[in-house]
Amino acid sequence: MQYSLTEEQEMLKKTMKKLATEKIAPRAGEIDEKEEFPRDIYELLLNQKVLALPFPEEYGGLGVDLLTYCLVVEELSKVGLTALPFLTSYSGALDCFMAGGTPEQEKEYLSRLLAGEFFAFVLTEPSAGSDVASMQSKAVLKGNKYVLNGTKCFISNADSADILMVYAKTDPKAGIRGISTFIVEKGTPGFYISRKEKMMGARAFQSCEVVFDNCVISKENLLGTEEGKGLTVILKFLHKGRIIVAAAAVGLAQGALDHAIGYAKERVQFGRPIAQFQGIQFMLADLAAQLEAARQLTYRAATLARDGSKEGMKLACMAKYLATGICMKITTDAVQIFGASGYMRDYPLERMMRDAKCLQILEGTTQIQQAGIARVLLDL
Ligand SMILES: Cc1cc2nc3c(=O)[nH]c(=O)nc-3n(C[C@H](O)[C@H](O)[C@H](O)COP(=O)(O)OP(=O)(O)OC[C@H]3O[C@@H](n4cnc5c(N)ncnc54)[C@H](O)[C@@H]3O)c2cc1C
To answer: Which of 75, 227, 350, 363 is catalytic?
Structure first.
């Protein structure tokens, strides 16, 4: 077990900190306000090869391990969640293609992503959120084509995506084992965006409702060669995705805590900086200690993710559960330390608090993480 970061990891953190403070932070408020797809931030991350970091070297990536990628996510999230949709989309795409794709699909699509095509993970449905097995979308094989029908919701940046990874049942009687994965390209007839949501925060995510209405795709667009392998792909995506979301929560929480510490040292009431009141000191100490615990758990989960064990899965659920919970608490308490100023849009705290909430919902809610932990504890 290693207890310190390598020199390369420390250097990467510094580079990411500079990118976050100089390029992302100045745009974060505007992106939140306008609710636009931040193409400039996407292109920045692509051109700076941040999105390529976890990709294998043979496809033009840099092949960093999950812990290193989590450090990147953490640093970039200190200024808000503006970069997160791109970081999760690219690492998620990588996991899906590696978990279920043929070598040809892996090569084609991973190269296309690194060349600048964007990806959406299309799983959730109006009646199937946490309960993936109740999915209604269906794909029927007719000759050498699949006909896809169904409605999906809350899909991040689906309207900007070039490649969509869509889950549908090919064998409805088989329940969760009857789910298959399909690659749908932008512009395919029968696929359209039916609605764009207005979100509380994390607005770089651009949530869309997506419809497949007799959408015809080639048989080769089945991910892999066999039907019914969707669950394997989903589990792989969620396992790493949860750790990455935990890292984002650690970063966002640290960013909010840093603001609160700075403000507490400057804001004078009753003749002295509020940081000199024990009520504020204990609050900051409590938050900092809990945050460090969540950070170490996240790093541990990232280190163990490679072995795919039950212990690894439990740690991933624990990391997401703990880190997103403390992130919600820290961003809320940071607003409290700022008083009325924290409630105003002039400071980034209220945005960070709104951003934090989504981390307790996407990639499995808090309760689903608790259920995942209990399943391993109780051997269910
Ligand atoms: C910002 C954002 C981005 C997203 N991006 C995507 C995306 O790109 N692609 C995609 O497919 N989806 C995406 N989602 C959807 C997300 O994955 C779902 O919202 C999530 O899985 C929860 O599903 P639900 O919202 O339907 O809630 P439900 O499953 O309806 O849950 C409602 C409540 O019931 C609780 N609950 C449910 N089951 C249990 C249980 N067994 N025990 C205890 N409590 C339970 C939940 O914890 C929650 O509190 C995104 C969501 C958000 C907020």
So the answer is: 363
pTM attached to this predicted model: 0.97
Residue 24 Cα to ligand 1 midpoint, Å, equals: 28
Each residue's pLDDT tens digit, 294-333: 999 999 999 998 777 899 999 999 999 999 999 999 999 9
Domains of the chain: 7-114 (1.10.540.10), 119-228 (2.40.110.10), 231-377 (1.20.140.10)
CA atoms within 13 Å, Cβ hemisphere of 275? 13
What DSSP character marks residue 244? H
* CB-based contact 176:133 (threshold 8 Å): yes
Nearest C-alpha neighbor of 180 from the set 191, 188, 169? 169
Q: Tokens 């084992």: give the residue.
A: 177
Catalytic residue check, 220: no
CA 335 distance to own-chain centroid: 24
The pLDDT tens digits of the residues spanning 267-290 come to 999 999 999 999 999 999 999 999
Return the C-alpha torsion angle 242, 244, 250, 253, nearest 10: -90
Q: Quick one: tokens of 218? A: 């080639």
